[in-house]
Amino acid sequence: MSAHAQTDSVGHATHTAPPAEKRSWLLTRPTAKTGIVSWLTTVDHKKIGLMYGISALFFFLVGGVEALLIRLQLAVPNNTFISHQLYNELFTMHATTMIFLAVMPLSAAFFNYMMPLQIGARDVAFPRLNGFAFWVFLAGAIVINVGWFMKSGAPDAGWFGYAPLTSKAYSNQFTHDMSTDLWVMGLQILGVSSVVGSLNFIVTIINMRAPGMTMMRLPVFTWMTLVTAFLIILSFPAITIALVELMMDRSFGTAFFDISNGGLPILWQHLFWIFGHPEVYILILPAMGIISEILPTFSRKPLFGYPIIVFSGATIGFLGFGVWSHHMFTTGMGTVATAAFSLMTMAIAVPTGVKIFNWIGTLWGGHLQMRTPMMFALGFVWMFMMGGFSGVMHSAAPADAQQQDSYFVVAHFHYVLIGGSVFALLAGIHYWFPLIFGRKVSEFWGKLSFWVIFSGFNITFFPMHFLGLNGMPRRTAVYDGNMGWNDANLIATIGALILGVGIAIYFTVMIYTYFKGEKTSHDVWDARTLEWAVPSTPPPEHNFDVIPTVHARDAYWYEKNHQAEIAKEQAAHAADEASHGGIHMPSQSWFPIIAASGLLTGALFFVNHIMIGAIAGGAIMFLGVYLWASEGPGGYHIHLDDKNHKKH
Amino acid sequence: MPLFLGGWFQWLTGPQSTFDTHGPVAKSQLDVFYVTLWVTGITFVIVVSILSYATLKFKARKTDDPHAAIPHQGHGNPLIELSLIGLSVLALVFIAVPTLKSIWYSYDIPAERKENAYEVNAIGYQWWFKFEYPKEQIDGTGTLVAANELVIPAGRPVRINLRTTDVIHSFWVPKLAGKVDMIPNRGNHLWLEADQPGYFWGQCAEYCGESHAVMRFRVIALDEAAFATWVARQKTPARSVAADAPVTGSPAAPYEFKNPGRNAPGWSAEFDAAPFANWEKQQNVNAGENPALIAQGRQLFQQKTCVSCHTVRGHDFNGTTAPDLTRVGARTTIAAGLLENTPENLHRWIVHPDEVKPGNKMFVGVPMTGGTTMAGYINLDKDTGKPTGHNIVINDDEARALVSYLHSLK
Question: According to the model, what pLDDT value does residue A377 have?
């Protein structure tokens, strides 16, 4: 936290620094602590994390409904429930929504909420930028989804939008199409959000760790946050370039992918997948981080082989940039390239397998508490392993020639994305719910939701392996009844409905618990890492009364076992901090949301080819950023009295 | 239990099963798959056993016991960790070796067999396949062209050059070979070989727009003699039945047409029971041809402007943007491998093409260079995407005549 003693006209400040220069009302920073304004202007990483979480869960449900519609259409052969066109929109939007609007932001929610707590910080390095990242995410989500409410419909080119299906010559063959432009602009805006957020996390983790929190003492979830953030800033430029090229093709007549002018659709595939494969790890590494927190807590043992878990995570991130063409084994790359990417893909199985071994090592000799988060975590290890093994099958390019773009692939990536990422995120919600809300989900309902989700998931996706090996291509709105696909499809649809029921139970119970759940102490699981060292639940605005000093890898576990030492140390630090003016907190601001709204309006006008509006949107954004820079650093101090943690 | 296993067995024996291989390329790919299956399967069983054992053995009996002993706080064991890494690498080597061998094998026809190889071009269109036979030149018209049913010689390697005229498609006949994409401005190829004569199902395997799901095709492998006969016959102009020719055989039973509606199936169990024999039967001229009706159909083919897109070689119909129909009567399927080629199905396809294959260009028109559209059955308003009028309307009687004509093209 900056020791900068600048204050402005914020009422909470009781510091004796020289009075701040007088600023106009426009540049006065808002101070609302409750109500809608407090959320719109917030810079608190916990509030931003919650907003990420709630938006992500909303889109998770939207994507889930899209999936159920897809499964209903495929329940029986030759079904007429939905049209081919709508089906194509549904699978495009299901994937886009689940990847960019559900799993990524849900991971971002945990990054935001947990990472600063895990490193003993009071906020992220750039609090306003953090708010900006969220509002930009929301803008992108709106742009991508707004097509549902427009004449041209939702995007329908598939989530990897293979050129030249996205070019004007094909998407606009018979009608003026806007959906692809919405998809391009929406993804571009989401990319801004991801990169901004990631830079913030990287700076935070590098610079704002509590004293004693060395890199090799970071909780694994924070490590995975760091690796994921690097993956995002290194991989998103590739898709940004691809999307800019596509936008130029569609709006200004260039010919990057326009085949009649010599464009090369294969270029899109390389650019997309050099982003797209790291993206896979962007989705799974945070999940691995969550699992690496939950397993030790409920085994009551430290993580087995921490350094190897950390280095394997980093290795996966690094190798993740060298395997993109395994998505392109059927594009006729030639023997040498195919062989190289085949071997690289096999290589990446090693650090992934290492994690599984170490998780089992963590369980070994432990004292396993079978609580709901632990159930989801163990479910993750099983299901992710199955997805990993079908992934190894894909790495053998000749076998992949039969599996690519078949339901076998669909089964594979749902095992790693639901059985992997989603199980871990659901585990994380259960695990951290008591910390965030001070209430605990009933074990009965939690475990019930787990078993229903677990069975529904397997009933849905296990038969898809057989569908793929029996020759059913993915992305097909209808199939004939003579292909031997009927039983497996019907079973998958029934499974999907069970999965839907499980998810419904899960969230109903969560909502119930939020209002009526059993109140708990904040350390309900006897946890090990620093986020549990907050003085109360929900955590106070300033997170820690005293910035903790870290003495061991499982910092909070150490704290609990050395209370006398820690108490003495904290008293000294509190006095020290008070002498520097108390706890310094960042001020709220209107400008993140204003700048983000400029992006939203600009994008919507651009898609409609109203360039004056697009320019106006850009102007709003730059004005927002300019005023943001002009409003000054702000900041205020919190003073705690001795008895309770009241501000004054 | 046997019933249960029987059910699973059936799940892997469909017409596009990757397990029921009929050629060396698919076989080589399946062998690699089996290696991956064994290696990952064995590893899975071992790891899951250990995981289950650990879960059961170390499970706390009473989860809420606050006095439970705290387990040893060990941080890991480098020796175990490194040996497991070594074992994983070893397991992958087992997969890597056959993988590399098969990558080279499946990429191109082995050198010693190239001499004997046959060559065809497969060209993807939204949403059908054109097949060219560059080795079969027809005097005056050029290369022999077929559509949606690829006939190849069995027992000979076949190199298939893969091209596309519009978006990316992917050529996949699971029983003969894994897929390779057809990518614009890029020359791809694959090779395959059918061990025995046979009839094989194929399907586009890369999402290619609205009707991707119904872009299918067939491959028919013939023995050397039958293939030569087939080629020789293909090279001749379309069969003509003179309007005043006597009716051959007893008159064909008139069929009742009732539109079965959108996405309705177009296959029959009778055909599937013996597809290859049925293909052979399909080559014969139908009994009970009605020459007058056929002649009327031939006229309608002109009047309804079918001719601007379709070729019937020898009948002065030379359109090129749509499938060649010179031998359409001898094909076992229509609408790109989707519907069995029965009179009812052909009637349905001609009268309600949009309900069979939504967005198909016969119905909505063909976009031409320069942004114009050659009209199909309907005119579309580009702003609203709604039809503004009908260009081609075919009533049931006209359809019967067209069906008779097209089915006479053997």
Answer: 97
